[in-house]
TrEMBL record:
<dbReference type="GO" id="GO:0016618">
    <property type="term" value="F:hydroxypyruvate reductase [NAD(P)H] activity"/>
</dbReference>
<dbReference type="Pfam" id="PF02826">
    <property type="entry name" value="2-Hacid_dh_C"/>
</dbReference>
<keyword id="KW-0560">Oxidoreductase</keyword>
<dbReference type="GO" id="GO:0051287">
    <property type="term" value="F:NAD binding"/>
</dbReference>
<dbReference type="InterPro" id="IPR050223">
    <property type="entry name" value="D-isomer_2-hydroxyacid_DH"/>
</dbReference>
<dbReference type="Pfam" id="PF00389">
    <property type="entry name" value="2-Hacid_dh"/>
</dbReference>
<dbReference type="InterPro" id="IPR029753">
    <property type="entry name" value="D-isomer_DH_CS"/>
</dbReference>
<feature type="domain" description="D-isomer specific 2-hydroxyacid dehydrogenase NAD-binding">
    <location>
        <begin position="108"/>
        <end position="283"/>
    </location>
</feature>
<protein>
    <submittedName>
        <fullName>D-glycerate dehydrogenase</fullName>
    </submittedName>
</protein>
<comment type="similarity">
    <text>Belongs to the D-isomer specific 2-hydroxyacid dehydrogenase family.</text>
</comment>
<dbReference type="InterPro" id="IPR029752">
    <property type="entry name" value="D-isomer_DH_CS1"/>
</dbReference>
<dbReference type="GO" id="GO:0030267">
    <property type="term" value="F:glyoxylate reductase (NADPH) activity"/>
</dbReference>
<feature type="domain" description="D-isomer specific 2-hydroxyacid dehydrogenase catalytic">
    <location>
        <begin position="19"/>
        <end position="310"/>
    </location>
</feature>
<dbReference type="GO" id="GO:0005829">
    <property type="term" value="C:cytosol"/>
</dbReference>
<dbReference type="InterPro" id="IPR036291">
    <property type="entry name" value="NAD(P)-bd_dom_sf"/>
</dbReference>
<dbReference type="InterPro" id="IPR006140">
    <property type="entry name" value="D-isomer_DH_NAD-bd"/>
</dbReference>
<dbReference type="InterPro" id="IPR006139">
    <property type="entry name" value="D-isomer_2_OHA_DH_cat_dom"/>
</dbReference>
């Protein structure tokens, strides 16, 4: 059996694959492999281990004549043509659950950082601009405790954010495909959520119905004192509209871990705003979580090769 690993992956986990008697073709560079490399190498493989940086589209799937399983080292799967894979009987594995709490921690960190101007404060000190010991009107932000939090998409990560919000005595409103009975939060329409929330948190997948769901008309519904937080997928937000909203002060600020293009260009207008906190897609980036994700991704791959049930299958 032969597998293609399309990203720089931990040596110890590659070793585990090799020790199972499997031949590995491995991309080792930091940047994503070119499409040609994928197409040239995928022809005879039985499995693909990929992540967000590689599109496993119809062209790749059709080129892989022996493919049994695609295992992605991620919870998101918008980079894979799942429909095409499944129509050919190819299993698709992913890594939910293990990154839920870690991602919710980052989302809460973003809420606190942007509302309490933590990044601005740090920058100011480093630039030698903290001149007076304490001032009544210096670097004022907004309270988080007791405010209204709107969660778009009450899935695993939405619920983990909800649990954190309860510790901050927040009122939680949410939109979701279905009403949830296991949480004490108000199920409201998307419009109501935007109108009522002090913090709008996006936790939905990227698909045709969520592409640019935050756009000019939806941003206009938000309060002038509200913040937008996104750690799901960049393309859920129309960044041009967000820049306009920030320029014209329709909202108080934003905290973003994901972008329409990643890495975001250093000249992107979003980098000009001090009321915007930016992190480089690190929602699941802790030692513990990335290793748990690796364990599941490898297990999904090996089980798929053995034609067994995957740990998490799409
Ligand atoms: C995923 O796994 O899809 C995340 O975006 C990585 O943090």
């Amino acid at each position: 059996m032969k597998v293609l690993i399309t990203f720089r992956f931990f040596d110890e986990w590659v070793k585990k694959i090799v020790e199972s008697g499997i031949e590995v073709i491995r991309w080792k560079e930091e940047k994503a492999p070119p499409k040609k490399w994928i197409l040239d190498n995928v022809i005879n493989v039985d499995g693909i281990l990929c992540t967000l940086n590689t599109k496993i589209d119809k062209e790749v799937i059709s080129a892989a004549k022996n493919l049994k399983v695609i295992s992605t080292y991620s919870v998101g799967f918008d980079h894979i043509d799942v429909k095409e894979a499944k129509s050919r009987g190819i299993r698709v594995g992913y890594t939910p659950e293990v990154l839920t709490e870690t991602t919710a921690d980052l989302i809460f960190g973003l809420i606190l950082a942007v509302a309490r101007r933590i990044v601005e404060g740090d920058k100011l000190i480093r630039e030698g601009k903290w001149m007076i010991p304490w001032q009544s009107d210096f670097l004022l932000g907004y309270d988080v405790y007791g405010k209204t939090l709107g969660i778009i998409g009450m899935g695993r990560i939405g619920k983990a954010v909800y649990r954190r919000a309860k510790g901050f005595n927040m009122r939680v409103v949410y939109t979701s495909r279905t009403k949830k009975d296991d949480i004490d939060a108000e199920f409201v329409s998307f419009e109501e959520l935007l109108k009522q929330s002090d913090f709008v948190v996006i936790t939905v997948d990227l698909n045709e119905s969520t592409y640019h769901m935050i756009n000019e008309s939806t941003l206009r519904l938000m309060k002038k004192t509200a913040f937008l937080i996104n750690a799901s997928r960049g393309k859920v937000v129309d960044e041009k509209a967000l820049v306009k909203a920030l320029e014209e002060k329709w909202i108080a600020g934003a905290a973003l871990d994901v972008f329409e293009e990643e890495p975001i260009n250093k000249d992107h207008p979003l980098l000009r705003f001090s009321n915007v906190v930016l992190t480089p897609h690190i929602g699941s980036a802790t030692f513990e979580t990335r290793h748990k994700m690796a364990e599941i991704a490898v297990e999904n791959l090996l089980r798929g090769l053995r034609e067994e049930k995957l740990v998490y299958e799409l």
